[in-house]
Every structure is written in C-alpha cells, then in structure tokens.
Amino acid sequence: MRFLMMHRLDESAPEAWNPSQEFIGKMGAFIQDSIEKGILITAEGVHPSERGSLVRKTRDAAIAVTDGPFVDAKEVIGGFALLNFNDRAEAVEFAQRYADLFEEVEVEVREIFEFDEQSA
Description:
Strand content: 25-35%
Helix content: 25-40%
Largest sheet: 4 strands, antiparallel
Structural class: alpha+beta
C-alpha cells in the first residue's frame, strides 16, 4: 500500500525553514535508510508559502489565484514523501520516527487511493 506523508511547519518560524547542518545530516541518514529498506518512493521539501500560489475553484465555477504568503495559515506544508507500507499502522509508526527528527512538526499520513480500487 502506498501512503502520502506531509509535514507541516510553522510559517512564522525562520528556523523551521533554515535547518541546521546537524538536522540535514540526520534527515539524510533517515532518508537513505528508508531508500535501502524499500520504503521510500520519493520525498521532497518545499519552500515557504511566499514562493507559492493557491488556486481555488468555487461551485459557481469562478477560479481565483492567491499568491503567497498565506497570511491566514500558521502551519503550512514543508515537505512530503510517498512511501510503501503493508498497512496504516506501519505508516504511522514511520511518521512518528520521522517527526522525532524535528523540534516541532505536525505529520499527516494518508493512504493513496489506488486506481484499481475504483473497480472494486
């Protein structure tokens, strides 16, 4: 089963967007271990929302684009990973170990809706 894991960071905390060399080393080792175990499909960090845009379509078919930063959001997505696990319990356990690398973070784990599930 594939799972999407997204971590959220405090948009207003500069240290969250400027990781230390120690953190980069720990994260690199964690990622390498995940690759070697066949868990990790892909993972990336993203820039703060000031370098993003939000595209929203309403029911009346109007489309609005809002450029960042997103002032209403305290926590924003800081990165994501696509992962392989046997079940959600394994994915959550992995997310807990991942979260432990950070000072403060929120990690959301979501199962991927597979195409072949549509015919079931």
